[in-house]
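Recall the central idea of this unit: under ordinary conditions, the amino acid sequence of a chain determines the structure it adopts. In this exercise we apply that idea directly, starting from the sequence alone.
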Amino acid sequence: MKKGPVIAWSLFDFANSAFTTIIITFVFAAYFAQGVAGDANTGAGQWSLAMGLAGLIIAVISPVIGAIADQTGRRKPWLAGVSVICVIATALLWFVRPEAGDVPFALVCVVIATVGFEVGLLFYNAMLPNVAPASMLGRVSGWGWALGYLGGLISLMVALFVLVQAETPPFGLDKNSAEHVRATAPLVAIWFTVFALPLFFMVKEDGGGVPLRTAIRGGISQLIATFRNARKHGNTLRFLVAAMIYSDGVHTVFALGGVYAAAVFGMELADVIVLGIALNVTAGLGAFAFAWVDDKIGSKRTITLSLLALIIGTVGVLAAPTAMTFWIAALVMSTFFGPVQAASRTMMARLSPPEMRGEMFGLFSLSGKVTAFAGPALVGGIALATDNYRIGMAVVPVFLIVGLVILRGVREEPSL
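Accordingly, the structure predicted from this sequence is:
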């Protein structure tokens, strides 16, 4: 195994984690709910519905794009294109002022950025077997997630100490118009761009393939054939269904965790960022530690153990009567974010035929997004209807439990 491509591939996790951590989960989500929308519960509901719309779009386009990429034989150009979309849409969030009139613009930018980010993951994940031998898929996948959490941690600390909490913000940023908070958006755009570049220079992939027009026709035909011959891929599809459901619960926590802390416990933005830093530390440690566990006991067992811990942790978060107990439960829960996601990526790599990795990871992305709109949408709808965000978030453990039950029937295939 060559260390250079592994490091470069893992650095992409380090790069894109700034987006999920700062924009989607903690800083910008809380700023939107409390500063832009005005009312925290209303803003949280609007944000949740926007995440639901993004998930629906991703669910529709991911398998098709993944199958087309298989035909072209190249994934880096696709990854570069959607990453640029994410970076540009993220940078535009700088223009979102703390005014209700900017709500539509903010949500449109966030939806576009999220779609670009998530579609990029299917190409990035499909490149895992290009950099890691079969015997080390679990470790390399786990290292990537761990480095991603480190990226989220460092970028959050920069956002907190350099911008949000700075007594005198740099570059003459005006606190009265929330420029010190809005500046976290271009920070993420720059961070993503800089640390993503090594992948495009150091990770090799096979060339060849067919022209784009032919690839589009071939990709769509390949995807249709896969669904028609679903019985031949029954075990893989069962795993995809399980991942579809439990990933919805995991992604809902990621997308709405900061909003939940702000809406339920009234945490100020700086407190939410500190929470995010702490969660990234425990999540990174969990991903790093379980990287060896995955290769030792298998991906399915690792996912199962992680889901059981997440269910217990989520119930603890929902039942927490005080901010302190919420903190404790959240830290326990976050330890297993990385392992369940890294082991799911490893299992998909092991189940995927080499010539169908793009399509299979497209379906993997679909499995994570086909109902991804359901979690945030249900949370948002229930929260708006009951004016109680805690009740809305109670749907999360249901998704985790159902996904775990379906996973029990999946056979873990030998390594590729």
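The chain has a mean pLDDT of 82.
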